[in-house]
Amino acid sequence: MTTLINIAAIAAGGALGAVARYLVTLGTNQWMLKTGGHLPMGTLLVNVLGSFLFGLLLMLLLKLHDTQTLMRLFLLTGFLGSFTTFSTFSFETVALLQSGHTVTALVSIAANLLGALSAFWLASKLSTMLFSL
Length: 133
Description:
Blueprint: H1 4-35, H2 41-63, H3 70-83, H4 86-98, H5 102-131
Helix pairs in contact: 1-2, 1-3, 2-3, 2-5, 4-5
């Protein structure tokens, strides 16, 4: 049953995750503009890093038999749910396509999908090794 405290935990994590995503993306994209690149590295970074952290934390919480706590709602649903971003990825990909950067758009698609999936897989394997000790 959803309680007010559960909603508050998700909202607090979501607010912090959104601010973290904004700051990471802003800093990374400003750096990319200086290098002359068009690939939206900020979105790629938050999606891959967020997927890695999600996999690591999920496996840790499952190892602790901790599946319904406020910490899980705060970290996974709230913080990492708003830290990673599929909507921004979609917008940036369409913008690249519309501006004629087709190859960069395809690289972005592949990097986000393969990077995020690989990061989650790696984190789950790493956490299994670390937390089984």
